Amino acid sequence: MFTLSDAGGVLKNPGAKLPYTRSAAFAAPRWWAKSYWHDFDYVIAIDYNRVKGTPPNDPTRPEGEGKGGGIWLHMDHGSGTSACVSLSESAMEYLLRTLDPDRHPVVVMGDRADLKRSR
Q1: Is the pTM here over 0.85, yes or no?
Q2: Angle, alpha carbons 36-9-103 (nearest 5°)
Q3: Does the structure show a pLDDT above 90 at 111?
């Protein structure tokens, strides 16, 4: 279970309740396949190996680079991710407008077997 504390993206803030950082720095590299170019139009940081209260794309990794990081909820491109969770644009907009930092939102992640054991 991971908290969700910061959001951002390439697009203007759609009314997010979480702190939102708009920046072109979120843009996917143009050498990626075109289907991935809008992945980071909206993102919500999953608080794993990151500093809460910073933009989602802050590179600081408190537990070290070897533990990974930069795991987000982001826009869907029609295929898998490398640990992120991808959602439709309408779902991302809904979450951004709905997730209230005062309610301490979380995401529960894991493989099916681990999640089933933790019930």
Answers
A1: yes
A2: 120
A3: no
